[in-house]
Amino acid sequence: MNIIEIENLTYSYPAAKSPILKDISLQVEEGDFLAVVGNNGCGKSTFCKTLNGLIPHFITGDFEGKVMVGGLNTQESDVGTLACKAGYVYQDFENQIVRPTVLDDASYACLNYAMEDYRERGLEALSLCGLQNREEDYIWQLSGGQTHLLALAGAVSLRPDILILDEPIAQLDPGHADKIYGVLKDLNEKQGKTIIVIEHHTEYIADYCKHVMLMKDGKIVWKLPTDEALRRVDELKECNIFPPQVTIAAHRMKTEGRLPQEQPLPTTVREGKEAFQALKYKASSASKRSEGGQSEPVVSFRDVSIAYRSVKGDDRMVFDRLNLEIRRGEKIALIGSNGAGKSTLMKLMVGLLKPSEGDIILDGENIRKKKTENLSQKVSLVYQNPEEMFIKDSIKADISYAMQVRHVENYQERTQKLLERFRLTELQERDGRLLSGGQMRRASLAIGIALNPGILLLDEPTANLDIATRKEIMQTLSDMKDITETVMIATHDMQLVCEWAERILVLNQGKVVADGTRDEIFGNQAVVETVGIRPPEIFSMGQALNEKALCYTVDEFMQSFVEA
Predict the structure, then answer these.
(1) Which residue among 217, 260, 395, 552 sits deepest, i.e. has the most Cβ atoms within 10 Å of its Cβ?
(2) What is the pLDDT of residues 24-35, one digit of tens each?
(3) Would you list the DSSP string of 86-129?
(4) How, if at all, do strands 2-12 and 194-198 pair?
């Protein structure tokens, strides 16, 4: 039975020159777990907003065609009615949290609908989403992953047959990402919910989804069973989607004649063990820390403690007598679960937060009493949400602002050079908040280095980006080696960690539990299990074939496993 039926859907945003959705026809069966994929700007989010009536009722525009959801025509049904058929969890899910406590928020939608059993529905939704026993907690006591689950519980409480999630794990650590998809699997298999996710992480698609729908230029190219879809390597890459690393490695080996042509491409590590079983492991040299690790300290944390005040319960201690040294010239990745203290560490370095105890020494000076604006020429922080970096009505004005107010000589000339370096010249008069994800990231980087800081801090620079845009940002980071001496990145993107970082710091419950190269971190199973780090899939593939293998990229895997 089809729970969604779409006929000849075409939609244009107001004043748009051309439609964003073009003559779409689709059927989705009840109980499906469908991944919607495509490059940034292809219409994925717009398409999903037609399923719960936000388009055309809330977001106006030119709407043609017919969309039937759970037997209701979305043009003839209001948004409130459709919310009980198709629940939606947005990419910026924090905006869906509207009440102060967990149960209050989970049951709020039902209360708003004047349902007498609103409390029972909220409790049921929290149980289904793995948040039982957190009912009376304040929402700010939750981690990022738990907050996402709460947003999901708010949608589940209305008991819709369909749940739609836009980039459900984009801002989450691997442990919380696994939890989210585990909950979605249970909702799909045990509760019979039809799940639709917009997703870039193809390894999760391979493990959890039943079908994949590819969108390109506002059209549906195809909808196929997951295995068949992910094996279309060349077609996916043309749309800036990268299949699982296991699949890419097997595809390259087939192309080189190293695997039988008739052998199906694996899409998971489990399938890869069979596909690669005839290959032999050839040891490669271990990675070493850069010589920059022997240079002088540029930042020192000395017995630093800081806690966040809590309305309910004890203050939450983030760091308790933290000691750490950052050396000049290092390229550092800061990893750990949501709430481990990564963003707090960076805010302490730029003076946005002050420690309750201890000292932070920057270039030999204690920064405790220094104003934030006086530190900005030495250390700069680029926020996780790049739109927070934009305060003017054009990128050009945003980049030049910090230099202009500090009376930097030739700031106009430097602004133009930065625009050119980050490929923003043609966009310089555009409002930064209206750019694509990749453009916003490039613009925020340009703003971050405008004052030539010796230390650059980046908070989740590749979050919410498709694979192609992530690679573009990674290339930009590599190109910046001659601009800023010391760079620290807080990230959940393990591929970025493995390809870029020379030193990895692992935070867990406010402590540095590991500090070393990628081999020292990912080769330490105790650290991986304790912190919940998920290494790149190709690393897991290598380990499954030979526990001595330490392969972080497809190229390294190809070099390490050869014909017997």
Answers:
(1) 395
(2) 999 999 999 999
(3) EEEE-TTGGGG--SSBHHHHHTHHHHHTT-TTHHHHHHHHHHHT
(4) unpaired
